TrEMBL record:
Database matches in InterPro entries: DPS_DNA-bd, DPS_DNA-bd_CS, Ferritin-like, Ferritin-like_SF, Ferritin_DPS_dom
Top-level taxon in the UniProt lineage: Bacteria
CDD domains associated with the record: DPS
Species: Microbacterium hydrocarbonoxydans
Top-level EC class: oxidoreductase
Keywords recorded for this protein, A-Z: Oxidoreductase
Organism phylogeny: Bacteria, Bacillati, Actinomycetota, Actinomycetes, Micrococcales
Protein name: DNA protection during starvation protein
GO MF terms, alphabetically ordered: ferric iron binding; oxidoreductase activity, acting on metal ions
Family membership noted in the UniProt record: Belongs to the Dps family.
Residue ranges occupied by any Ferritin/DPS domain in the UniProt entry: 37-159
Its EC number(s): 1.16.-.-
């Protein structure tokens, strides 16, 4: 009688999984913070182009949630957990530029761009760091960078000359 075949949890090599977790975890935490701080911005923006900026911020929040999900699920698909509890998110990305109360749209836009730029720096580090380790995880980071670059463009176009 043959022994039941053991099915491994994932098909990944431990080095690949560790690298994916190392480089993609900061993206998950930064993007989760953006979903919260972007809502703060969405609720409190005032002034020029109110409707457009208010609605754009909701779109950016939705994208951030999708990007976080993609990065987190890549880590989990490789067999590792991620601590994305609120305490971990706050520790990584607590220092938002988004103000606590009402603010004019130009200031809100600059604040959200600043938060996005911090995530973009981690995203570039992930693209570079994963280059010789795991192209599939690097592709996740590239997809996120492409999306954040576009959202940043939509924001910056409101304040560019
Ligand atoms: Fe809303």
């Amino acid at each position: 009688m043959s022994k039941a075949q053991t099915v491994s949890t994932t098909a990944s090599d431990p080095t690949v999984a560790a690298a994916a977790a190392q480089f993609l975890s900061p993206l998950v935490l930064g993007l989760e913070a953006l979903t919260v701080n972007g809502k703060q911005a969405h609720w409190h923006v005032r002034g020029a182009n109110f409707v457009g900026v208010h609605e754009l911020l909701d779109t950016i929040v939705a994208h951030a949630g999708d990007f976080a999900d993609t990065a987190a699920e890549r880590i989990v698909a490789l067999g590792l957990p991620i601590d994305a509890r609120l305490s971990a998110v706050a520790e990584k990305a607590g220092a938002t530029a988004v103000p606590a109360g009402f603010a004019q749209s130009d200031d809100v836009i600059r604040a959200v761009i600043s938060d996005i730029d911090a995530i973009l720096a981690d995203t570039q580090a992930a693209i570079d760091g994963l280059d010789e380790i795991d192209l599939t995880s690097q592709d996740v980071a590239i997809e996120i960078k492409r999306g954040l670059d576009k959202d940043r463009w939509f924001l910056v176009s409101h304040i560019a000359a």
